[in-house]
Amino acid sequence: MISGKQNALRLITALMLFLSGCASISVTNSVEPLKAPVQAFYATDRNNTGATDARKKYGRERSIITYGIAKVSVPDDHRIGKIIPSSFDRENHQQLESLDLSVLSREELLNRLKQTMADSKEKSILIYVHGYNITFDEAARGIGQMVSDLDFKGCTLFFSWPSQGHISGYIADETSVAWAEKDLVKVLEDIALSSGSKNIYLIGHSMGARALTIAFLELLSKKPYLNTNFKSLILAAPDIDAEIFTRDIAPALVQSGARVTLYVSGKDKALKLSTRLHAFRRAGDANGGAIITSGIETVDATNVGTCALGHSYYRDSRSVLSDIYYILKKDLNADDRFSLEAVDSSHGRYWKFKE
Question: Tell me, which fold does domain 4-19+35-353 have in CATH?
């Protein structure tokens, strides 16, 4: 008979494999021409390894917050929604994009950010928090590709917490993402107070959505007057306990005044396994019905085209990217976004992508 402990270990192993993402790399022998680089500010509480190679500059250990600017170039022929990094082949796949880092002090970053904001027509900033099994390099390149795909013209900053960057690190990542929440509160506070923007957009994916929601709410509990700076919060496939989200998190998010969009899917195999591992459904898992909370726009992405694992649809589906574009660029609510259709259920209204 298989013991409960053995069964849990098997589930963890399966979860690690599924949560690692899609192996969508296409290895070629030629070097692709690169677009002009996307510039993204960053804050990270990973350790500085001292490596001269930008891809290995930050490791998986915990450290104090450091700051900088990442410049990411992607191929000219990059297709929207085509994810270049591969979690299954980090060592062997051809590097099709370049990464250049400039380390800054906190004061330098805030000054540069404020000046960039002053020169920007958009007067907006997008802050992104990645999920499980992501290296700093992958986080930088991922946000570079997403910003390029969304044609986002405002400022961008990504927060990279010390994920192990390995499929065996799920439990360690759960601990580290919780540890990083206090640092993320500091980053959000700095941006809200010093950037000069009252159009701050937040995106959290999977496990990163846990830290983002908790940090956001902690900041507003301390300084509620900052709520007017935050325009929108996007939770993509959040790996959060669904009941805790519904009871504790969602009502507080609604009270923040920011537009909250929750992307869920019934084909997210990663979250199905996470549900089995934790014994409770995840907020991004639409099996059993999408989570519907008054004041939050729940979008069911079950029927969009995505990779086999169905966990990264927020950046590998044209339909979802287009929907996010209309949130960031046009500030449209779900009823007014072209690709969505409303569904009225006994629990309330949610939206799904048109067939």
Answer: Rossmann fold (3.40.50)
Q: What ranges do the domains of the chain cover? A: 4-19+35-353
Residue count (the chain): 355
Q: Is the pLDDT of residue 225 over 70?
A: yes
In whole angstroms, what is the distance from residue 61 CA to residue 112 CA?
27
Confidence of residue 73 (pLDDT cuts 50, 70, 90): confident
CA end-to-end span of the chain, whole Å?
Answer: 46
Q: Are 262 and 235 in contact, with CB atoms under 8 Å apart? A: yes
CA 168 vs CA 13, 91, 140, 279: distances in Å: 7, 16, 22, 20
Residue 147's closest CA among 24, 41, 304, 233?
A: 41
The Cα–Cα gap between 344 and 328 comes to 25
pLDDT recorded at residue 99: 87
Give tens-digit pLDDT for 76-96. 555 555 554 433 344 434 444
Q: What is the DSSP letter of 51?
A: -
Amino acid at 141: R
Q: Are 167 and 158 in contact (CB under 8 A)?
A: no
> Angle at CA 59, nearest 5°, toward 16 and 184?
85
**Sorting pLDDT into bands at 50, 70 and 90, what band is 198?**
confident
The one-letter amino acid code at 246 reads T
C-alpha pair distances (Å), 294 with each of 222, 237, 251: 25, 19, 8
The reported pTM is: 0.89
